[in-house]
Write a structure and sequence with these properties.
Number of strands: 22
Number of helices: 17
Pfam family, one: Alpha-amylase
Structural class: alpha/beta
Strand order of the largest sheet: 1-2-3-7-8-9-10-14
Helix content: 25-40%
Bound molecules: alpha-D-glucopyranose, calcium ion
Strand content: 15-25%
Shape: globular
Radius of gyration: 24 Å
Protein name: Alpha-amylase family protein
Distance between the termini: 17 Å
Largest sheet: 8 strands, parallel, barrel
Oligomer: single chain
């Protein structure tokens, strides 16, 4: 690998960290986290080894969908700070080798957006055609509605407009009409604006819906919607060669693959691996890695310069929508048996540690997997300390509680009256008294120290991020074993999905004398026989990463 390549294609070995400024750190005591607060706490992320911050929406918003309902794509929510603060933040991040990407939510606007206000006011409004209108809505029923417990149609009649408008999400989020060239141009302007301020790209919200051209009066007139994504990517590349598009595409693999574009990857730089994530939870529920292995085998290769984005938890409900009904019930039974833990009948509004009854070994095994499986790991804030959810909070906000910094008042997040926090803290076993950054920072045995170590080794092993992954066969059904090869170097990783110890033999290399397997997560070594096999033991939920050393290999630390 040429060294320039790692820097140029930085996203292939990045550690992405998603956070909401609003719940990260509050500096002025109003109960709302702010941009300056994130700046003050940025060293926590640098120490952890994060290389890219994904900021959830920080734009002006009536906040009816936690900021995903935007009234000004060029603005900054005044509760959070100013454009000046954003630019300072990007500089602070850059100074620590971190890039910043913004959530780009342009499938829809808030119904309070001035564009929509104008559009609904008259058929003559220059913005009328920026949204999607019908005199009579197509009969759609609840099919395709994203929030089935709240909405029963994609079409909403607007009294003022005298017509129905399309909304994929909540009815207060009218869909923009991307078939309209003016809308497309405006979206490019929005991207150009934030790139100019120093952003390194975007997490693109709801990509398949964004590309949908239901708004066209004659769909046959329209070019392939993927052409539009190609245009956006080309524009991005012209403006900033190192900027990325990380897309939210929750579709079956063959369809998701199309969003990478052609072999050169001329559409999304990265797509989240929603399928692998769901199969991982099924594997965890069954205490055997079969479903995950199947997913990894079926997962199409990302484009040459692209990468999959892997994750354990994101900011939404933990969706299980691509499992069969029976499989979903298995996961519900294991990790969220009570109805109030579930959402929309298809997902969980819990974080991992409570699902596992706070079993630290099991948690560590899962994060070890995240950082050793092929793909770019994306963390959701609080995962590094094992935060839980607050089920008393409505809907998806259960997992969007404030970051827990100390065991003190409001977890050190804010000095405001707890009643003024935008989302209440977690309490009890997973509250700040028991789970916080301060306590874990200097404790070498903490989850946070474990994740810091995983990140350090992941960053030091190009095999994991750039290599070809092979699932290794063996006879311990609860163990997932894989190796990643890159330019003649090999890392082997083994993970035990069960609460029983396991022992097994792996073929890690061709026959030959002098092979060694050096532990990467502890001081140690495993013996390799001359036939290229090794006999390994794993504790319950054990995990081990090993680098293969061939005779004469040098320069490896
Ligand atoms: C995406 C976001 C989600 C939001 C929705 C509408 O799915 O992840 O949080 O509600 O888009 O913008
Ligand atoms: Ca504040």
């Amino acid at each position: 690998m040429r060294l320039t390549q790692t820097a140029d294609l930085w996203w292939k070995s990045a550690v992405v960290y998603c956070l909401d400024i609003e719940t990260f750190f509050d500096t002025n005591g109003d109960g709302v986290g702010d941009i300056r607060g994130l700046g003050q706490r940025i060293d926590h992320l640098a120490e952890l080894g994060v290389t890219c911050l994904w900021l959830m929406p920080f734009y002006p918003t009536p906040d009816r969908d936690d900021g995903y309902d935007i009234t000004d794509f060029y603005g900054v929510d005044p509760r959070l700070g100013t454009h000046g603060d954003i630019v300072e933040l990007i500089r602070l991040a850059a100074d620590r080798g971190m890039r910043v990407i913004a959530d780009l939510v342009v499938n829809h606007t808030s119904d309070q957006h001035p564009w929509f206000q104008s559009a609904r006011s008259s058929r003559e409004s220059p913005y009328r055609d920026w949204y999607v209108w019908r005199d009579t809505p197509p009969e759609d029923g609840p099919e395709g509605v994203v929030f089935p417990d709240q909405e029963d149609s994609l079409w909403q009649f607007d009294e003022q407009a005298g017509q129905y408008y399309l909304h994929r999400f909540y009815k207060h989020q009218p869909d923009l009409n991307v078939a309209n060239p003016e809308v497309r141009e405006e979206i490019s302007r929005v991207m150009g604006f934030w790139l100019e301020l120093g952003m390194s790209g975007f997490r693109v919200d709801a990509v398949p819906f964004l590309l949908e051209t239901a708004g066209a009066t004659d769909a046959s007139d329209l070019p392939d919607p993927h052409d539009y994504l190609r245009d956006l990517r080309a524009m991005l590349a012209r403006r900033n060669g190192q900027a990325v598009l990380l897309g939210e595409v929750n579709l079956p693999y063959p369809e998701t693959q199309k969003f990478f574009g052609d072999e050169d990857g001329d559409e999304l730089t990265m797509c989240f691996d929603f399928i692998g994530m769901q199969q991982l939870y099924l594997s965890l529920a069954r205490s055997e890695p079969g479903p995950l292995i199947k997913a990894l085998r079926e997962r199409p290769k990302a484009a040459e310069e692209g990468q999959w984005g892997t994750f354990i938890r994101n900011h939404d409900e933990l969706t299980l929508d691509k499992l069969t009904d029976d499989e979903r019930q298995e996961v519900f039974k294991a990790f969220g048996p009570e109805e109030h833990m579930q959402l929309y009948g298809r997902g969980l509004r819990r974080r991992l540690p409570p699902m596992f009854g706070n079993d630290q070994a099991r948690l560590r095994m899962v994060y070890s997997l995240l950082f050793s499986m092929p793909g770019t790991p994306v963390l959701f804030y609080g995962e590094e300390i094992g935060m839980g959810e607050n089920l008393a909070v409505e809907g998806r906000n259960a997992v969007r509680t404030p970051m827990q910094w100390t065991e003190g008042f409001n977890g050190g997040f804010s000095v405001a009256d707890p009643a003024d926090l935008t989302v209440p803290m977690v309490d009890g076993e997973f509250g700040p008294d028991n789970v916080n950054v301060a306590a874990q920072r200097r404790d070498p045995d903490s989850l946070m120290s474990w994740i810091r170590l995983l990140i350090q080794e992941y960053r030091a092993c190009p095999e994991l991020s750039w290599g070809d992954c092979t699932v290794l066969e063996h006879d311990a059904p609860a163990v997932f074993a894989h190796k990643s090869d890159f330019e003649g170097c090999t890392v082997v990783a083994v993970h035990n999905f069960s609460d029983q110890p396991a022992e097994f033999t792996l073929a890690v290399a061709g026959a030959g004398p002098g092979l060694r397997l050096i532990d990467l997560l502890k001081v140690g070594e495993a013996e390799v026989a001359d036939d290229g096999t090794t006999r390994l033991e794993l504790e319950p939920y054990g995990a081990r990463w090993l680098r293969l050393l061939r005779p004469g290999d040098r320069y490896v630390i």
